Amino acid sequence: MSAPNSTTSPTRGGVFGPEYAALTLALLSLISVIAFEGMAVSTAMPEVALELDAVRSYGLAFSVMLTTQLLGIVLAGVWCDRSGSLPSLLTGQGLFAVGCAICGASTDFAPFLVGRAVAGLGAGLTFVAAFVLIGRTYPEALRPKVFSVISAAWVLPSLIGPVIAGWVTSTWSWRWVFWMVIAPVAVALVVLLIRRSQIRAADSTVDASSRDHGTHVRAAWLGLGIAVSAGVMQWGTHELELTWSAQTVAALVGLVGVFLCAPRLLPPGTFTMRRGLSSVMISRFFLPCAFFGTITYIPLMLTGERGLSLAQAGSVLAIGSIGWSLGSWIQGRDRFSGVRDRLVSLGGGALAVGLAGVVLVTWAGWWPWFIAAPLAVAGMGMGMGTASLSVLALSLTAPSDHGSASSNLQLSDVLGSVIGIAATGAVFAALHTRAGEDVPAFVAMWLGTSVVATLVIVAGRRIRT
Questions:
Q1: Which segments of the chain have a pLDDT < 70?
Q2: In 301-434, where do the E strands start and end?
Q3: Are 435 and 247 in contact (CB under 8 A)?
Q4: What gap in Å lies between CA 127 and CA 123, rounded to an integer?
Q5: What DSSP letter does each residue of 92-103 carry, written as one string?
Q6: Per-residue model confidence (pLDDT) at position 455
Q7: CB 22 within 8 A of CB 16
Q8: 152-188 residues labelled b (16+ CB within 10 A) or e (exposed)
Q9: Can you tell me whether residue 267 is helix, strand or coil?
Q10: Whole-angstrom Cα distance, residue 314 to residue 163?
Q11: Which pLDDT tens digit goes with each residue over 357-394?
């Protein structure tokens, strides 16, 4: 039995038409809350690191969340294939709220990391379920616009999140940056519960997954393996010194573990850029690896090297985020429906140019607000590339396997972020001296990420079969 909603549902009124309006608003609410938390925490983290005495472990606060997100992503793919999208979606939001509450209450770095881990697991469950929901509920003609709207849902949080986080941290405490997202998560939960009959109806029209029980079990164990390996790798890199030590060995062992598990979870040929779906996945790996490996450390550079306040650093990120919205809007145009592979390559080029601009502004010591311009260019590349890859992943996969395809896509995305942040974190920890003298470290980190971005140009050209 096929999924009628995937091909034959009416598109009158678009994603905000009578049939889809409530569901679209629920997804917008959900993505906006998670986006706000991501951008707001980036702004507040310099203050968190100082208060909890964890400046050298700065990157670990981001990467530990991504590590557990990897596990959530793999488990969500199995869960959605077997039980539909709703259970994973609701559980993920609940865990995300609990994790944020723990972070806000932490007085030491260890419980703070626990909170980030719980929130990451919730985010992993949530994102995959949301993608499955889109693939099974919206007709194919509306999916590019759905992803365009969802990408745009990052814009308002990206614009106001850093500014609000800087103001809240300076006026009250960084703890409120975590606590203030709990209420919106509860609202999103209520909206999804109201629409649960529509979600279950869409799930019920889809054929059984082509993956049997044994395959699901293996995927779950591999998900645990890749999460543990990523965690070990990040522990080994977060205070890396340029000498052989137990941490150095752990970092290498973890890295080997990641690349032993990942090829067994992703489509065959992903890391060799095989044509088709495999190149979709590797493109989705390179994009966040380059982007988040850069943007995670920009607030630290602006406050520590250029003397900006947290609110000002947040404003720079907010200005730069406009480009992501523009890129997402571009890919949502109907004229690009048959050339999305070209948009991926174009997005990789824009990302590489933008990150090279970040390196130039940092190295030359120019006015720090100038960095917003190349950030906007990099964001435009991300908007064009990531949204296009989401559409391509669903269009190249049968509806019955949207759970595994969405899981693979998110796995590639988060794995790229983990590797990017761990690599830049290792460079920073190894070259860090003290605030005001870290420009060489930042330049070295971001030269590497700009090179990674150029690989998207090549991978994008291999998507078309």
A1: 1-14, 17-18, 39, 54-59, 63, 151-162, 198, 202-217, 219-220, 234-245, 332-338, 399-403, 432-436, 465
A2: none
A3: no
A4: 6
A5: HHHHHHHHHHHH
A6: 94
A7: no
A8: bbbbbbbbebbbbbbebbeeebbbbbbbbbeebbeeb
A9: coil
A10: 5
A11: 999 999 988 888 889 899 999 989 998 888 888 888 87
Query: What structural domains and CATH numbers belong to the chain?
Result: 13-460 (1.20.1250.20)
Give the type of residue at 289: C
Distance of alpha carbon 346 from alpha carbon 151, whole angstroms: 17
DSSP 207: P
Cβ–Cβ under 8 Å, residues 122 and 72: yes
Amino acid residing at 82: R
Neighbours of 211 (CB within 10 A): 18
Instruction: Count the neighbouring beta carbons within 10 Å of the beta carbon of residue 430.
Output: 15
Overall pTM surpassing 0.85 (yes/no): no
According to the model, what pLDDT value does residue 156 have? 65
Sign of CA dihedral 109, 111, 112, 117: positive
| Residue 372 token pair | 């917003």
CA–chain centroid gap for 368, Å, is 26
Distance between CA atoms of residues 96 and 67, nearest Å? 14
CB 354 within 8 A of CB 381: yes
